[in-house]
Amino acid sequence: MLKILAAQIREYKADSIKTPFYMILEVLMETAIPLMMASIVDDGVEAGNMAHIYKTGLLMVAAASVGLFAGIMGGKYGARASAGFARNLRNAMYDNIQTFSFSNIDKFSTAGLVTRMTTDVTNMQNAYQMILRMCMRAPASLICALLMALWINPEIAGIYLLAVFFLGGILFLISRRAMKYFNQVFRKYDDLNASVQENVTGIRVVKAFVREDYETKRFQKASGSVYKMFVKAESIVAFNAPLMQFTVYGCILGISYLGAKMVVADTLTTGELMSLLTYCMNILMSLMMLSMVFVMLTLSIASAERICEVLQEKPDLTNPQEPDYEVKDGSISFENVSFSYRGRDGEPALKQINLEIKAGETIGIIGGTGSAKTSLVNLISRLYDVTEGCVKVGGKDVRTYDMETLRNEVSVVLQKNVLFSGTILDNLRWGDKNATKEACERVCALACADEFIEKMPQKYDTYIEQGGSNVSGGQKQRLCIARALLKKPKILILDDSTSAVDTATDAKIRAALANEIPDTTKLIIAQRISSIQGADRIIVLENGCVSGFGTHEELMEKNRIYRDVYESQMSGNGDFDEKEANV
Fold first, then answer.
1. Residue 522: which of 443, 424, 412 has the closest Cα?
2. How far apart are CA 72 and CA 407, in angstroms?
């Protein structure tokens, strides 16, 4: 874990070295000042030597100035190093997430990834700054003060050693107990973020069903869980302060008692006693800082583990050693394909699929909810890998292609359409970042999106809110189809992507696709048979298996499920799922 995290320091190594250097320099100056104070008292005040007082006083001012400068520089470089470390952690996680396949993403919730990139990284930033500053300053100050105390008077310095061992043992027990709760609290943070995310994303549904009170109670429950965990952890950590105060006052009393007796016995000077009391405070403040470091490190260890989970996650899908960079055509072949979301040990979503699709064909796909229609087309662009068998595109196994090349040739309009904040042109150019406005207008005409775009005040410069919240479901679908067409793909997959448009517009889109991109293989998933009736061939899926594959006429003659659904829909009695339930 340490090796993984240390790799993210990178360009901030120099700052990470300068910080402890300046911290140690500051400590050395602070350690020298009590000695100078003792010299002023013993050799200046008591001896009546004003020259010595002035000389030593100037040295104290110089030492204090150097210590102040070192402290400022240590703070500057420490802040730069810790902020840079946090930035690199976020970038590394984000970059790694971009390489994840769908199966990798399935392992982490969206809320969990957000927590890792925000709260957890902030904890690591604070912890790293403490390590560079306090974790260097406190031990150095502790060691220097102890050595100086032992040099002045070993007998009194024994009190410091007792305090160090006592507090060290207590801090170990406290951090060990608190760690258990800090590990749990971040899992509760995930639940809290999930509650907020769902509520904000679905705010229109919440208000439509008047569920504000329910969502408020749900959030309060998640927030309350975080509160309870933190209270338990902080209640344990809170023992730090009283134990520290008890030790501080105990040491002061012990040193004052023994020191006063020694001063009276003339075995210790007044200046040395003052120095010992100052070193006492230095040692105990160092222990206080170390206790804060322990608490922060205890908190950050849980965060570090969660961050490393993301950084260590390897994408399930990778490019072959010598990938193919050219897709010959849009032909598709499924050869004894079985697929499970949980690998060979899981329940198969697809079972023994064998299909041959020619380049340029229009293929309809129909089936009930859960029949694995989307799972089938996800294998074509290699969003998932098959569990058994192989999928071929252009005559080659999809696993032999460079993934970027393959996905550029397979354009997908997903079932859940997503638009991003930006203008309509910005969203369209996801299909081709160099596309001209004329090209964007052309694909919008094919997708029947120009009808509503031209009515908008700013037309193609109209700003789309996050998630496309300011356009209707049908408008969003047509924009996503236009965006996919802009890629000029060899294979176009429409995953139930015209469900929110009326039948007339649906027919126009299908006619435009047939006329304008005849060489592109088109796979159309639909619930309405009218949307795929004119396809070259139609696949009927049932429980992850191919129930039928043929033209509309062939299926009407040979496939009972397809025929019953067609008759049901044509008579206006239901859709595929409703009829399937009665079969």
1. 412
2. 52
